[in-house]
Amino acid sequence: MGGSLAGLLAAHVLAGHADQVTVVERDSFPEGAQPRSGVPQGRHPHVLLEGGQTALESLLPGFLAELRAAGAPRVGMPSDMAQCQDGRWFRRLPATTHIYTGSRAQLEELVRRRVLANPVIGVVEGSDVVGLVGDASRVRGVRLRDRSGDTRGEERVLEADLVVDASGSGTKAPQWLTAIGAEAPHEETIDTGLAYASRIYRGKPGVLDGDTLGYYVYPSPSQVHAGGALPLEDGSHLVIVSGLRGDEPPTGDDAFVAYAKKLPHPLLHRWLDEAEPLTPPFGYRRTSNARRRYDLPGHRPAGFLATGDALCTFNPIYGQGMAVAAMSAVALRDALADPREIPTTRRVQRAVLAASRQAWDISAGADRKMPGAVGTAVEGKPADRAADWYLARVQERYPSDPVVGRAFRSVLTLAAPVTTLFAPPVARAVLFQPAAPPLTEPPAAPEEPEQPKQPEA
User: Fold this and answer.
1) pTM across the whole model
2) DSSP per-residue string spanning 383-440
3) Which of 56, 129, 271, 352 is least buried, going by the fewest C-beta atoms within 10 A?
């Protein structure tokens, strides 16, 4: 259920274990790389983090070369961006990781083309799933209705040995499970009320190109307004501004530009004043974190799995969704291929959820500290609070310290586990070295790599 990234990649994995895999998509797929209504945040910034790159390349060998050939910008962090958080501008040290910042539509089209080339995978487009078929012990398919607009239209049944919910954050699967006598999952939620608006611009030559590819100001409890400009595949930039509940960014032309004045530095606003808008502003407000705990004990049927945003949704401001969709598909592949274990529904579901755990800890951990956050998981756990002191020292140091910065970026991009932050060289810098004085102005250019010292003659 669902033909976006999570659904396509799950279908790709399952095609190695089934005679027929059917992707049911409520939209009709566009020709080429075009946004579609079924991806409501598709017009907004997306980044592919390093953990997602590794997962996609594992699933679809050669994919990153295709992405580069299509023109997707590959941005070195922190060298290629002017970035700021809590009033600290980041030193533009040599890149230790790279992200892709091209449009969501481009990346999804490349994945769709690769996945649907497999003859085992079929597609039903323009159809809504309206319920599950089965009972409390096993799901045996789904009920479909053509999206003709007639809610009384005839339903039909699509039988299946396994149903995968990849229908996104608006999933109705919990209600459908209840309707067949099963138990809905417990939901953990954290909602900061963050809202954002995005618009594509083309800037003046020589400003956001060359050594500086983009700007970004990150939100924090002490600086709730955020925004930036990220490069797209056609040389334009996708600009985003964000604020919290009660101070949402507007979508009017002049008001959008004026809102950028709320950022702690005029850099983005100055750029917008001279740039040419190519699209109207689009707003987005569904940014809460939600985790559906299908892995916990409960009366739930075999033959049903959830993945992607239908399982775990993150505040999009952290750019984790595409990476987690790919990493979840790798977890599904590995769980099905493990010769040591029988791939029961609960065991596979736990493996898929585990693939999203680090992203959840990052997103939920940051958002529960934001003013006005509400939800069932805002309080966190004692272990979360115990780590706050150490992580606060990490965040003070990572904009300027090469050792701490490398480790923290590897964790944030889902390329390394959180334990990386406690490795001896990182812990020494965090515990015993003072934080460098913050840079109060954005560095104009990347720093040159340090040259190794030559031995004395």
Assistant:
1) 0.94
2) HHHHHHHHHHHHHHHTTT-HHHHHHHHHHHTTSS-GGGGGSHHHHHHHHHSPPPPPB-
3) 271
